[in-house]
Amino acid sequence: MAKRRAAAVALAASALGGCVAGPAPEIATPAPILPETYHYRPSGAVETSLADLLPQGDAAFVRMAEVALAGSPTLLEAVARIDAARAAADRAGAYRLPAVGIGGSVTGSRSNPDQFGANLPPGVEFETTRVQYGANVTASWDPDVFGRLRASERASLALAEATAADRDAVRVALIAELAAATIDWRTLSAREASLRRDLGTATEFTRLAGVREEAGLSPGFDRIRAEGTMANVQSRIDALAGEKARLLGRLVTLSTLDAGTIEALFAETAPGTGTPSPPATLPSDLLSARPDVRAAFARLAASDQALAATAASRFPSFDLSAVVGLLAFGIGGLFDTDAIVGSLGASVAAPLLDFGRIEAEIDGAAADKRAAFQRYRGALYQALGDAESGYALVAAADREATSARTEAALGARQADLADTRYRAGLADFLTVLDARRTAIAANERADAAEGRARRARVLLWQALGGGESPLP
Could you say which of 5, 176, 339, 346 would form a disulfide bridge with 326 (CB–CB 3.0 to 4.6 Å)? Predict the structure, then answer.
């Protein structure tokens, strides 16, 4: 017996020594080098907040954003994913705690006495029918000596953080799309208002050309040119209606409001169309502000813990178990002292020969961690690129808007001077029409350029991670 026990101990030691192959492999994840500042960031301190880049003074935008954040299907789906990820983390944590169960049983059996032979000793009787009653409480626990369960729990918690960051990314994208669509609607409305004013002027010129034609002071060609200008302005107004219809459908999808309510919101007095200066943020702010960067970093942490859990599978696993119960052959016997039964056990299991399966799993987990690190780097450089582009776009859009507004002012003055010269007999009617068409086109380009300047600020807000917002 002693020799057998010594052989068993030696075999167990050999198995444990063979499966313990060291810690998880180290995967280099150096911190990416960030620039000290953005190339197109405005110089000097700018007293504006990130939220000022949104059209938060527009009541229509604020109302649509409030409703969307409360009932958007896309956002609520992301919230449900967070609940699922947290449940997975709770489940992983629960595996580290003892499992306790309770059970009961009633078992009936009938035996043939002949199986024990025909010649039983005198006075020995055999019950052919027996009913067994039992009740027990079981408990088992994995002490997690080598940390496999702890690593799995930490991986699940990191994935829950990544899912929460994904929710934030959906929220930022939703607000940005609503803000951009709101600005587009206001821009279209401004262009339509300008064109309707120009339509009134073109109509008056057409009437004047008709009067002059009837009086024999100008040829019919002038009236036809005037009518062409009026038709051109009207066609532009009709084209804007189609763009508004497309925007309205998009806003219904984003805000979950009906089209009538959205139009009623936009029918209210339009706010001022200011273009605040962009705030002077730093590239390092993206590490905590951009939801996609935070999500990628959390998934990198999860892959690190998953690698640790996979590597721990090379080590022995222990299990402690206990059973306490009652066993009797009559229902009344369950309450006797002799009915109490129990057992206590401990087990250890370790891989001995798996032909490289565990090592392959470890290699796969290590590759997943390397991929997660590159995804994190990709998300970070994507964020840096978006921010650089956002600052540059704001600067370029502001210059375009300034130039377009100057062009519109000069075009309006040129049209007024041409009209004055015409009335004084110093210019022909064709010169007046050409000057008016130029002014109309320049004014529409100025309205569109100002809309692009405001929209560029929304893109910068999204590129910088959204950050603080007065919206709920």
Answer: 339
